[in-house]
Each structure stands twice: as C-alpha cells, then as structure tokens.
C-alpha cells in the first residue's frame, strides 16, 4: 500500500478522492496558474528559516528517504543539540519531514512548521497536528509546537540580517483533539488507498481550503454548463441568482434586474454592447491636459531584499508612460530596472523627470498607482512633494469604463485584458509576458545573477513590451469610449 505523508493526510481531509488521485493518477492533475510561484515563495521563506540558525543541520533526502530516517534517528540518539531541518520520522505508515526542530533546555523539543503566510491559517493547525502525532508516536518529547510565519511588520535594516522576519504562533494547546483523532483519520485514509477510486461528487470541497488539481477530472461527464452562466453577473449577484435555482443567465427575468446587472443581462442576451458615449465623454472632460497614461509593475518579496522594505511590500521596478498633448501628439517613456539593485529611488526620479507638473495622470484602477506613488513619496522625503502631488492628480479610467461600456465577451469582468479585445483588434496573446504574474516571474529571472546576459536582454524586452501594451490599451479604451459606435 502507498505510504501517507502530511500533505496526503491534508488531501484526504479535503476529499478522499483527491488523496487517491494524488497517489495513483497524478498525471490527471491540472495545476492552476501561480502554483509554481507559490512553491518558490515557500522555498524562499524556508531557506530564510534555516539561515536564521547557522549552526543547524539539514537532513538531506538523499539518496532516499530511508537515509533521511536513519540520519534523523542517529542524531536524536546522539542527543544532538539541534536545530534540525527536515528531520524525518515515520509512524504507522505516515512519513513527515519537520521544518525545524529545536532542542529545549530541559531536553524536550520545540517543533515549527514554517509557512510563508503572515498569520496561521486553520489548515496549518491540522498539518502541525499530523507532525506532532507522528513525532509523539516515535517517542519524541514534543514540549511546544508552532506555526512559524512571516511577520509583515519586519523591516530590513541590514542586507541579509533577517532576525525578526519570522515569528512563532504557539499551537500545541490547540492540537489535542486533532491529535486524538489522527489514528482514525490515518486508518480511513489507508482504507481509501486500498480500494478503487472513490466517486466523491464535486462540491464546495473542490476549492476549500485549496483549489483541487483534479477538479476537471472529477467533473468530466457532467452536463456542460450554459454558454452564458448566471455567474457572469458581477459583485456576487450571479451567486445569489444561482442560489435561487438559476444557472442560465438567459433564464433570469430582465424585469428583476437593475443597475449594472441589468446592463450585463441586456448586452449578453441581445449581443449588442452597452455603450454610453455621452456619459464617458462628460467624465473624461474633467481631466486636464497634458495626460500622462501611467502603469506600474511591482514585485513583492516574502523575504525583503532591500533596506527599508517589508515582507510582501509592493516595490515598483517598472513603469510605462504615454504623454498625450491636447492636439493628439503622444510620446512614450519607460523605466525598468533589471540589475538587481533597489529600483525605488531611480523609479521615483524618473517619474518626476518624465511627468510634467500639472499633468493629469490616468491609470486603470488608479488606487494601485496612487498607492505606489504615495509609497515612493514616503521613502524619499526630498521627492515627497512632487510624488504626493502626482498621487492627488491620478484619475481612474476603470470606473468610467465600468459605467459606460459592457460587451458580453467580458463575461462579467472589466479588467483591461477583458475589455480591450471587445474594443480593438489587440490583446496580450502574442506577448511573452501576458499578465502581472508573468511580469513578476520574468523580473525575478532577469535579476538573478545566474541568468545569462543574452537571456536577460530578452527578458528585458519582454517586460518592456508588456508594460507598453498596458498603457496603449488604456489609450485605446478611452478613445473607443468616445466614438459614436464600435
């Protein structure tokens, strides 16, 4: 029978079928976008946790886990003072690798499960309970157990000095009932693996606490959803109608809808876009000239790299700027830092140099651009006045678009990547970088010292092309809103 692990126990508790598929049919998995990035963040935080204990011992899983089990047992028997990283134990067919084990003065052990989140989550407690259950089953004297998570109040003062980055949330007092049930949980999980694939029906558990990588497999053979499901109605309205028994948007009575939901319904059923040119024009007339169309790209490191930054703080490394005059002439400027140094000062100076005083700054979802400008203003007191003034002058194209345009192909979304193809023969499909997540991944590769210089140039060109597309998209959306028909 296949063995169990902490992650497999967690999969079983979410859905027995997920556990079975993880063990026997992994080729059916469909990992969602961003999974690789999440693993990278977790690895980065894990490495930081080890770096905080330079005298610790890493227990390698080479040549195999049997060797890790043997090494762990030997170090424990020798009263190793610790810390131990990835200490490996097995009890009743369940194998765990403990992120950090620290020897306490009384000879007992403190164990920590390292997480990249900024606070413990409910499912973390279950993971920790499985580890403690295994350790106790192996005779380890566990005196305390914690979720070691990122403290987002930490500010890097000296490069590489990470004391204070992680903090422990003690959980041992919350584990008793869960640990007491672990025998039954393990038996049930093992029984599932001894049988054929469970036929658990899809449901809410498919996305809680994690999106299941086998959801598409489990839903095969189900009736196809309607072409225009009621869930395209925005702001939770679709879910409310679904709860009333409606699946197809076409079946929803038009006279029971109002506001944006009525607009979405009418445009979807008729196939005719909603376009209020006059309303859009009236709002955009309030903008002054010249107009600076601005888009930032940012990166948020779980482990801060630059002095004065905090975990998960959005750091701007790139912007695209189109400066449009009242006579229609337009110039493009851009900033991108890929040398791996702190880009904030250079970014702030480039903004001040390239955006004229008094220009109307236009963004799509302006609260983000405003937050970046205000953040930079707080970083550099000598530039604060100009940057704060820019933040005050930042206007937002998104709510204007939301109020005055809807095409059914947007499918309930007004993101610029959904709106643009409904207005112009232009999209992001041909670009190497297609969204902000791609941009962050490409940036990380570009600033990696191990990246080949020729490769770095290609990555730089891809980032520039993507950010430039964002500002051109804004210009096109604004222009199309002002024409009589599209």
TrEMBL record:
Output the superkingdom of the source species. Answer: Bacteria
Domain called DUF2779: residue spans: 293-415
Q: Which Pfam families does the record match to this protein?
A: DUF2779
Keywords, sorted A to Z = Plasmid
The molecule here is called: DUF2779 domain-containing protein
User: Which species?
Assistant: Croceicoccus marinus
